Amino acid sequence: MTLFIVIAVALAALVAVGLAWPLRTRSPQLFVAMIVVVPVLAFCLYRIVGTPAGLSAPAREQPETLAEAIAGLEADLERDPRQVDGWRLLGRAYAEEGQPARARDAHARAAALAPHDDDVQVEYAESRALADPGRRFDADAVARLRRVLARSPAHQRARWFLGIAQRQAGDDAAAAETWTPLLAQVDARTAASLRPQLDAARKAAGLPPLPAVESAPAPHAITVKVALDPDFAARVRLRGDASIFVIARVPGGPPMPVAVEKHALQALPLEVVLDDGDSPMPTQKLSALKEVELVARLSASGNAMRQEGDLESAPVRLALPAKAPVELVIGAPR
After folding, report:
1. Sign of dihedral through CA atoms 284, 285, 286, 289?
2. Residues 254-269, buried b or exposed e (16+ Cβ, 10 A)?
């Protein structure tokens, strides 16, 4: 540190000489004063606002394991236990380490610091259930979930967990009532996975199942029919473990699909609907295209990217949205 101060003062002196040099002949006294005063002022300013200790403090090493990260979090929270996000992160780390009781206790600290934060309260309620040997939501957890829904009826996780708690308690009718609003809040795929759970609760409560829903295809969804050419199928012996890929890609663009589905050879002839849910890349959606090229590929390797020996249908190019199903025939003469 002494060496640093000496160097800093020397640099300040050099700067002062440079600034005062034009005065050396016209005002020698002012020239000397500037050479002396500027370094002294720089040193005083450094001692007042500088952080000498910070210059010599070793850099904090990044944790290499989850256990080291947990130890660091524990030390940080011991120094400052008012960090809500710190307790939440510690709770998640404990859960990842398979320590549900300690995870629950960490989330309890976060919940106490943020009693009106819905996400924090729901996270704590969930951690209480995960720490229970029977994975059950106790009275405290249920009360917290109810308070969250009273403030925020659209909080999906609170509504889902409350429904689970109600089913655990044998109140299937209440669970069905709690879960029903979720159907209007979630996307179509999530709703499709939720409906069997909801119907199971309704059945247990002696209620009829929900009315069937006709799923309308997305505006840019494409219905594709795939078949093998009969003559080709008759003269060629195909491997039973071969796969069929139905692929949509950018016309004239890279070979990476913007939508793809994989099916077993035995599924032929088949009909599929390609939409944004079939996109392997979140940044490239089918609905963002105005034109698309479709192809069906018979693959012995099971790889969506074309391999030697794969057989493809003739590609079909069409504008979106498509008004009619597209037929692809593998093995047809071109």
Report:
1. negative
2. eeebbbbbbeebeebe
Calculate the alpha carbon distances from 160 to 110, 166, 193 in Å: 21, 10, 13
CB 112 within 8 A of CB 125: no
- 328: tokens are 């692809």
Distance CA 227, CA 244 (A): 10
β pairing state of 222-228 and 326-330: parallel
Q: Are 330 and 311 in contact (CB under 8 A)?
A: yes
Q: Is 193 left (phi over 0), alpha (psi -120 to 50) or beta?
A: alpha
Residue at 217: amino acid letter:
P
Q: Report whether the peptide linkage leading into residue 321 is cis, meaning its omega lies within 30 degrees of zero.
A: yes
3 state DSSP class of 139: helix
d(CA 224, CA 326): 5
Which tens digit of pLDDT belongs to each residue from 260-293? 999 888 888 889 989 888 888 767 788 888 899 9
Give dist(CA 275, CA 298) in Å, integer: 21
CA–CA gap between residue 38 and residue 224 (Å, rounded): 81
66-204 is classed CATH 2.170.130.10: no
Tell me the CA end-to-end span of the chain in Å, nearest whole number: 81
Say if pTM beats, i.e. exceeds, 0.70: no
Give me 260's structure tokens. 């793809």
Helix (H) or strand (E) holding 329: strand 326-330
Each residue's pLDDT tens digit, 302-326: 776 777 778 889 999 998 888 889 9
Query: How does DSSP assign 177-240, residue by residue?
Result: HHHGGGGGTS-HHHHHHHHHHHHHHHHHTTPPPPPP---PPPTT-EEEEEEE-HHHHHH-PPPT
Q: Looking at this protein, which amino acid is placed at residue 233?
A: A
- Quick one: which of 254, 268, 277, 253 has its CA closest to 313? 268
